[in-house]
Task: structure prediction
Amino acid sequence: MTYPPNRRLLQHLRTERPALFTCVRRADVEATNWQAEQAIRPAVVTRKVCGGNRSPRGAATQAIVASVLRTSVQQHRDPLVLLVALQRSPRPIVADLRLPGPAPPT
Result:
């Protein structure tokens, strides 16, 4: 295979192979991501109504904050308490937001 985009695709598939068919091996993993799509829908609507972001950094920040807010709500935690703790930390810290269920395959 000599066409560079094909080589990149092949390498990507090799790298992601263990995760590609997780839904076949595990009954608790759905084959679609519709729940994730629905979860981010409010953030997408907000972005479109507000005219998007003015910079790539602003877009990345909005995505991170939306993810933290959604995850904290899903874990029945107060997102305001979490964001205040992150903002007040004297040095960068990682938010304690754990994924429920078993760890993903490596």
